[in-house]
Amino acid sequence: MDTITAVRNRILELCGQRNISIHKLAILSALPPSSIKNILYGKSQNPKILTIKLICDGLDITLGEFFSTPEFDNLEQEIQ
Q1: 10 and 47 in contact (C-beta within 8 Å)?
Q2: How many helices (H) and strands (E) would you count in the chain?
Q3: Residue 79: burial class (beta carbons within 10 Å; 0-12, 13-18, 19+)
Q4: Kind and range of the H or E run holding 9
Q5: Which of 18, 35, 70, 78 is 20 to 30 Å from 12 at the Cα level?
Q6: Residue 79 has what pLDDT?
Q7: pTM value?
């Protein structure tokens, strides 16, 4: 699994846990819905850390909580 897939999966997981839509997440995060959709649908292959921080703020979690999952811990090195 690559990093962008892990980020996408984590956003979907957190929305599912909270039973909120992508649109609701955008409102909570003060982001345009297109910013989140671009991450989820693969248009944005390198989301800014500020965007992820705003998503975390909207979900009321820290960046550490966002990235503290086995999925991120087990990522393969992407530099070949």
Answers
A1: no
A2: 6, 0
A3: exposed
A4: helix 3-18
A5: 78
A6: 77
A7: 0.91
pLDDT at residue 78 in the model: 77
Q: What is the pLDDT along the chain (80 residues), one digit of tens a residue?
A: 889 999 999 999 999 999 999 999 999 999 999 999 999 998 998 999 999 999 999 999 999 999 999 999 999 887 77
Q: Are 7 and 52 in contact (CB under 8 A)?
A: yes
- Orientation angle between helical segments 49-59 and 3-18, nearest 10 degrees: 20
How far apart are the C-alpha atoms of 39 and 51, rounded to whole Å?
A: 10
The reported pLDDT for the residue numbered 59 is: 97
Other C-beta atoms lying within 10 Å of the C-beta of residue 38? 15
- Which residue is associated with the tokens 């800014």? 48
Can you tell me which residue has the tokens 């989820």?
40
3-state secondary structure of 80: coil
Length of the chain: 80
